[in-house]
Specification:
606 residues, alpha/beta, TIM Barrel, eight-stranded mixed β-sheet, globular
């Protein structure tokens, strides 16, 4: 009976699609407008040695039709790392690409072209998505990119590198050598006002020297919008005017890109210009302080204009303490004069923020202080002094001590509001909750290199540990001053990038897209929890029973995740994800099914 009712109500939603507008979202989604096209080619010195990549025995046996065509088309999961010699199963050939997506959600979809003969000047085109009632989601809602392999410096051998699947460049016409596999990456956006139902489109692949082939896309648009998460999602963000090959003029594009990937906050490294002598301290927010390309005032204007409104982590205070007060005033740390300048700086900074009606600044006086006993001492001292001056402000510290047997969270608890741990264990979670501090976690991601790890960390792992905030190093960060990312092999120092710089906007990595998918996993959970609460408010025995079953489903899924990860288990966990990433899809599918069931039952009552 319930199953029958479910399908009756599902077709009610499809009928809604029939009577709705025919075409959705003619304009390009803002997430596509801000991303760049191509990266610079990386210079590889002559004396560097390439390490072998992923070698797989190809289980694919070409069919007669594929041999005749000179190439084969394969479906591929976006979480599976794709190398040029990747192997396939025969049951992956020429299969329709299928995904489901909620309203207003971006969702990735991947296919591969394997060249059995050299393929020249391959054109790829995609048609509009059309549902069973003739309603259309325009092809402008589909972003097509090409996976690019990037040289990563070996961790174990000097002057060695390996090519890794990493960067997603904008689609262009390319050629593919014989036996090489090329991955194409689609991101599909379901407009917020689209009708639910099954949409279909064709991908046409046409090499200049071969016959064209087509692949089917099937996109199931679900009948709900995802709730925004209560959790804060952030990314470390800073650009330095001394870096070469970066484009600080793209700051607004960066912030929109961050917003469209589901993140709500970031760090603020920039500081106002500090001047003064003796007891006279002057701050100028319209002039860049130290090496920032733009003033704090400009940074905040772009932040707010992009739609970001959440509190920011003010990391710049760490630099003021370590370097700036001494370099400007000549005072030594812990001296009466040094402390006087410090107190005036934070009071003037907070006063200016309030006068501009900016979002809250959460102050960080140090980064990973447990790495150095002297740093731990100064962190404790200046946290305490900060709370004496401004007892109402919140404080944040990255806590790395657990890896060294140091309980830095407990040591700083009296003056600390946001504990940000490098992974967790049960005791750290319990102690943080008991202290009423916010629980944050950082650096559980892959630094852009593995989307399954990034998706897991930002999504189901964050849900399992009950994190109040998640953040990760870093949006873009150069390996060394004065060296652009495409010249980093000259220095042997490679930076960290979730996106790569280009003149027309940030170029996403596969890990950057994984972050968005993780946040979407959490949004699915949040949406289901909201419906559970709504069903309980209605209070009928039947709905109460269904709400209980849905809550048990969430609990059962999350119990699969080990929270004692501040050990070597962390690395076993990420290795396991590389093989078992499909579990993340299965969990999301289970939650989406529960959302539809509860929503339809509530709609039936209404």
């Amino acid at each position: 009976m319930i199953k029958k009712s479910f399908f009756i109500l599902w077709y009610f939603f499809l009928f809604y699609g029939y009577i709705s507008n025919s075409v959705y979202c003619q304009q390009l989604p803002s997430g596509y407008n801000v991303q760049g096209n191509q990266c610079s080619e990386v210079f590889i010195p002559d004396d560097w040695i390439e390490e072998p990549g992923c070698c797989l025995n190809d289980r694919y046996v070409p069919s007669l039709s594929d041999k005749k065509a000179g190439y084969a088309l394969f479906k591929r999961h976006y979480l599976a790392l794709a190398f040029p010699n990747i192997s396939f199963e025969n049951n992956e050939i020429n299969k329709a690409l299928k995904i489901f997506v909620s309203l207003g959600e971006y969702e990735p979809l991947v296919f591969c072209v394997k060249a059995l003969e050299p393929l020249e000047n391959i054109e790829v085109s995609i048609g509009d998505l059309v549902n069973e009632f003739g309603k259309i989601i325009k092809k402008e809602n589909i972003d097509l990119r090409i996976l690019k392999y990037f040289p990563l410096i070996s961790k174990n051998k000097k002057k060695h590198f390996r090519y890794a699947p990493l960067i997603l460049e904008k689609y262009k016409i390319i050629s593919i050598d014989k036996w090489v596999t090329q991955e194409y990456w689609l991101t599909i956006y379901a407009p917020k006002n689209a009708a639910p139902g099954n949409y279909k489109a064709k991908i046409t692949i046409k090499p200049a020297n071969k016959e064209k082939k087509k692949l089917d896309i099937v996109v199931t648009v679900l009948p709900f919008h995802l709730k925004k998460p209560q959790r804060k999602y952030g990314i470390y963000y800073n650009l330095d005017k001394r870096w070469k090959g970066f484009y600080p003029e793209n700051i607004e594009k960066h912030f929109i890109d961050i917003r469209e990937h589901g993140l709500s906050t970031l760090t603020l490294y920039g500081i106002p210009q500090i001047k003064g002598k003796g007891e006279n301290v002057e701050l100028d927010f319209s002039v860049p302080g130290f090496t920032s390309p733009w003033p704090v005032k400009t940074f905040m204007e772009y932040y707010l204009n992009s739609g970001l409104k959440a509190p920011l982590i003010f990391i710049g205070l760490d630099y003021v303490l370590r370097i700036k007060i001494k370099s400007v005033f000549g005072y030594e740390m812990y001296s009466k004069e040094f402390d006087f300048v410090y107190k005036n700086f934070v009071k003037m900074l907070e006063g200016y923020r309030l006068s501009e009606n900016w979002p809250e600044f959460i102050f960080s006086v140090s980064d990973e202080p447990a790495n150095d006993p002297k740093k731990m001492q100064s962190t404790e001292y200046y946290l305490q002094l900060l709370k004496q001056i401004l007892p109402g402000v919140k404080t944040y510290i990255t806590l790395y001590g657990g890896w060294k047997g140091i309980d830095d969270g407990k040591a700083l608890d009296q003056w600390l509001d946001l504990r940000c741990y490098d992974w967790l264990n049960k005791k750290l979670i319990q102690d943080t909750k008991k202290s009423n501090d916010q629980l944050w976690v950082y650096n559980g991601g892959s630094f852009g290199r593995n989307p399954a790890v990034d998706r897991f960390f930002y999504g189901f792992y964050a849900e399992r540990v009950g994190a109040d905030g998640i953040t990760q190093w870093v949006y873009q960060w150069a390996g060394s001053l004065g060296t652009s990312y495409d010249q980093e092999l000259k220095t042997g120092l490679q930076g960290w990038y979730y996106t790569y710089p280009s003149f027309d906007g940030p170029i996403p990595t596969i890990g950057w897209e994984g972050i968005r998918e993780g946040i979407d996993d959490a949004r699915y959970v949040r949406t289901l929890k909201s419906l559970i609460s709504e069903a309980r408010k209605v209070g009928t025995p039947f709905l109460m029973e269904k709400a209980e079953a849905a809550e048990e489903k969430i609990s059962r899924i999350l119990q699969n995740i080990d929270i004692d990860t501040q050990t070597e288990k962390r690395y076993l966990l990420t290795k396991s994800l590389a093989k078992n990433f499909l579990q993340l899809d299965l969990w999301r599918r289970e939650i989406a099914s529960e959302i539809i069931k509860l929503q339809l039952l509530l709609e039936g009552i209404k």
